[in-house]
Amino acid sequence: MGRCIRSARWKVRTARQTGYRVLQLIILSMLLLYGCGPEQPDYPQRQMPQGLMEDSVQLAAGHALFSDKCASCHGKPSEGLSGRAVFFQPPAPDFTEAHFRDSDPAYLFWRIEVGKTVEPYLSSGSVMPAWRGLTDQEIWQLVAYLKTRSE
User: Fold this and answer.
1) Cβ distance 88 to 72 under 8 Å?
2) 42 domain residue, yes or no
3) Does 21 lie in the same domain as 93?
4) Which of 30, 51, 52, 95 could lock onto 149 through a cystine, CB 3.0 to 4.6 A?
5) Residue in 143, 151, 112, 148 with CA at minimum distance from that of residue 49
6) Which stretches within 48-117 are classed as H helix?
């Protein structure tokens, strides 16, 4: 009878050790996957000008800039989306999803300003041009308009 009890204890201990090892592997795998996640770009912090989001003249200027410079890639078909935009990898967002409303304005400004010229976008296949020819005010107008598209 003592032999059966020792055997049962050994089985319980082995099962417990195996469970701990599996748990350790799961935790290690999760940490590795977290560390290998998408690279977060480092961009300069900027402050959106006060009142820009409430200024209808500035928002209208942002809309006009979007229509002229951005809609062929980021618009909807009714806004002049180009047929070539369907083939972009990664696809160009149209900024109507709710999470764009909460995007950091400094990030949006930076992305418009540098386009595909920096990592991780340069190596990911982005085709967005850098809009360095726009003034800061024009870029802020675009940022404000983009944030209103997701409302």
Assistant:
1) no
2) no
3) no
4) 95
5) 143
6) 56-65, 71-74, 105-114
